[in-house]
Amino acid sequence: MDKANEKEVVVAIVGAGPSGLATAACLNRLGIANIVLEREDCSASLWRKRSYDRLKLHLAKQFCELPDMPFPSNSLKFVPRDQFIEYLDNYKSGFEIKLYCQRSVESASYDDRIGKWRIVARNTGSAACLNRLGVANVVLEREDCSASLWRRRTYDRLKLHLAKQFRELPHVPFPSNSPTFVPRNQFVEYLDNYKSYFEIKPYY
Fold it and tell me: In terms of C-beta density within 10 A (0-12 exposed, 13-18 middle, 19 or more buried), how is residue 24 classed?
């Protein structure tokens, strides 16, 4: 975010779930400059990444609408996951919400001298994400290989403790035929393929 935009911001909203998007939309309608800081690489990440395909809203749609935008009249009473995500995307674009993804808020403190809050947000974008955006970057590694903990300090029969869909790196899913809990060797291979696919050049 450049300095000009930084001076204009009156409100910083942490989190781009439905509540964060709704808050930003209401502020936009009132003409109050704001930004939304989201640590994941997308809005509504819980709905996109950590919910099952057949999930539906547990309340009727009229109780889940965000401010100033009803669900389409032809939508189901209990809106399915995919339609709810589409609704949130339309809400975000319709209200021109300024969203900064991969910004992990580290601290917030009030500065008495200037009468404003200071927020420290860390850019969590990986080298792969930066490469996709055309941003110059370097990766420094003290060992002589990438993922050295996985290669040298784990036992052969180790598997991921979470299902593969929760351990995928941005933009590259695991192969469809890989098991739900990916074994160590396959995970290392996945990391190597990821590195080469995005042309990441570590310095060892």
Answer: buried
Tell me if 127 sits within 8 A of 197, measured CB to CB: no
Question: Quick one: what percent of the chain has pLDDT higher than 90?
Answer: 50
Tokens 């947000």 sit on residue? 121
DSSP H or E run through 121: strand 116-123
Predicted pLDDT of residue 81: 96
Q: What is the tens place of the pLDDT at every residue in 164-191?
A: 998 888 888 999 999 999 999 999 999 9
Tokens of 83: 């339609």
- Provide the token pair at 36: 């939304």
Buried b (16+ CB within 10 A) or exposed e, 69-103: eebeeeeeeebebebbbebbeebbeebebbbebbb
- pTM for the complete prediction? 0.60
Among candidate residues 145, 153, 168, 170, the one with its CA nearest the CA of residue 178: 168
Backbone phi, psi, residue 69, to 5°: -150, 100
Note the pLDDT tens digit of each residue in 120-146.
777 777 666 655 545 555 566 777 888
